[in-house]
Amino acid sequence: MAPEAAELSPEIAALDAALAGGLERLDLALSDEQRFQLLAFLDLLKRWNRAYNLTAVDQPAEMVARHLIDSLAIAPWLTGQRIVDSGTGAGLPGVPLAIAFPERHFVLIDGNGKKIRFLRQVRRELGLDNIEPVQARLESLPDIERPDTVTARALAPMEKLVLWHKEWIDQGTRLVAMKARLAENERKQVPDAYNVEIIDLEVPGERARRCLAIVSKQ
Length: 218
Description:
Layout: H1 10-26, H2 32-52, H3 60-72, E1 82-86, H4 94-100, E2 105-110, H5 113-126, E3 131-135, E4 149-153, H6 158-164, H7 166-169, E5 174-179, H8 184-188, E6 194-201, E7 210-217
Parallel strand pairs: 1-2, 1-4, 2-3, 4-5
Antiparallel strand pairs: 5-7, 6-7
Helix pairs in contact: 1-3, 2-3, 2-4, 2-5, 3-4
């Protein structure tokens, strides 16, 4: 259950207000309970970060924009019910999206065992039955059901992303890659058999440029 507003400390109330403002600008309606799940995820991330070095951004106010709002900004481009978050790291964007869309199933893939242990703890503490942390190398897809969408956040050059996920993309999966920017020469490295759509992304609270590269089979 989400706590009542009167029970919140001034720090948490300020973070919740910043989160609510960002969600409003994204036109994304979440319940009070979902917002507090998101903030609980940040708290858990900050605590584990002391020992596991999960993220370079560890100031709560900055984490709201850089981790939560940034992740949720791609929500309109998710398709289908099965989502793979490739190279998920600390669960970004997968965990915030899983909280926002409990009816969807999210497979969070990373090769780092410490990060997968953290995500299993997130699953337990937050009761997120719709996330499935999987430890696997990105160069070799795990033996799981083909997803409808693959997300990747600042993970690798587009040529590698398409190569790693080629088997799924060729069968109809869409790759949604989050990028700070996409140079034309990087785009040209993607084989002609694939369509690459570039979408400029405005993230509330973020000044840095953001874009999405959406890859599908021609």
